[in-house]
Amino acid sequence: MLEKYVKLLKENSIKVTPQRLETLKYLDENRTHPTVDEIYSELKEKNPSLSKTTIYNSLETLKEHGIIQSLTISGTELRYDFENKIHHHFLCKKCGNIIDIDIECPNINKILNSGHEVEEVHGYFKGKCKKCMKKGS
Amino acid sequence: MLEKYVKLLKENSIKVTPQRLETLKYLDENRTHPTVDEIYSELKEKNPSLSKTTIYNSLETLKEHGIIQSLTISGTELRYDFENKIHHHFLCKKCGNIIDIDIECPNINKILNSGHEVEEVHGYFKGKCKKCMKKGS
DNA sequence: TTGTCTGCAAACGTTTTGCACGACC
DNA sequence: GGTCGTGCAAAACGTTTGCAGACAA
């Protein structure tokens, strides 16, 4: 059940520890773009001696190796995402959910053509999601 | 010289105070996407009794009225921009400069068509800017 | 005069740091 | 045995809050 994550860590020459495995598993199973505190609170239940510092460390290590990515939406804390491909996000101001947005922008090439070297692409939207729109109010 | 900003504030029914005028003037004349601290440090030189709280308050008020906008780039503090139209940013990891990017993404309509109501659009890139590319290293 | 704005100090929440202990090659 | 990871506590950082006095309209 955890072999998948053991493999992933080993492939990236990252030492395998229970904390890293659990962090990775949590992110894989919870595609809600959780904050550090959400991850910590959840994992602490099964491992009461878990430290938040370790969560920070684990997430940073995983991110450095490109296994996961972080996202920042103004007004909210840092979040993490198991999905490591470029994609964007939509934050619903009403329900707070963050929805993945998979659009591509053909004009990104314009930046490349202007001589800059793009390493990271980040995009997000804020508004009212489909579900909340239907509910009215 | 400040009449321009007095007018802008009055048009938006915002009380005119020297602090608000100076904040607005600074943002207009410094299109570098300054942080709160940068604005504060600079304005404090001419007005030593200036408080950072006031800068926070002024910026928030101006933003609420849509006169200015804020931007967040992960790993850096909150920044403010006199330009209030939708546009994107490019942070050079080398020199730290933030460059305006004026590309449009035709596919944004896909989000609208999917039923979500978009109120805000934020996008930014990270990499190495043209100038730093030329310098080599 | 009335309500709002300013400036100070303290509080707050998130993230980082320093360090001792422990686990693993 | 030496390196690396963990967990704790404290510090750092950016931002927010509460409040008293000052100011704009």
Number of helices of chain A: 6
Described by its quaternary structure, the protein is: homodimer
Which strand-content bin applies to the residues of chain A?
15-25%
Mean pLDDT of chain A: 95
In terms of topology, how is this protein built?
The structure is a homodimer of 137-residue chains.
Chain A: H1 3-11, H2 18-29, H3 36-46, H4 52-64, E1 69-71, E2 79-81, E3 88-92, E4 98-101, H5 109-113, E5 117-128, H6 130-135
Helix pairs in contact in A: 2-4
Chain B binds a DNA duplex (25 and 25 nucleotides) through residues 15-17, 19-20, 35-37, 49-54, 56-58, 61, 77-78.
General description of the model:
2 copies of one chain form a homodimer. The first copy, chain A, has 137 residues and is an alpha+beta fold. Chain A folds into 2 domains: 3-81, Winged helix-like DNA-binding domain superfamily/Winged helix DNA-binding domain (Arc Repressor Mutant, subunit A), CATH 1.10.10.10; 88-136, Ferric-uptake regulator, C-terminal dimerisarion domain (Dna Ligase, domain 1, 2-Layer Sandwich), CATH 3.30.1490.190. Helices cover 41% and strands 20% of the residues of chain A. Chain A has 6 helices and 5 strands. The first copy, chain A, has helices spanning 3-11, 18-29, 36-46, 52-64, 109-113, 130-135, and strands at 69-71, 79-81, 88-92, 98-101, 117-128. A 3-stranded mixed β-sheet of chain A has the order 4-3-5. A two-stranded antiparallel sheet of chain A has the order 1-2. In chain A, helix 2 packs across helix 4 (52-64). The N and C termini of chain A lie far apart (44 Å). Chain A binds chain B through residues 70-75, 78, 90, 92-93, 99, 101, 103-108, 110-111, 114-130, 133-134, and chain B through 70-75, 78, 90, 92-93, 99, 101, 103-108, 110-111, 114-130, 133-134. Strand 5 (117-128) of chain A pairs antiparallel with strand 5 (117-128) of chain B, so a sheet runs across the interface. The structure holds a DNA duplex (25 and 25 nucleotides).
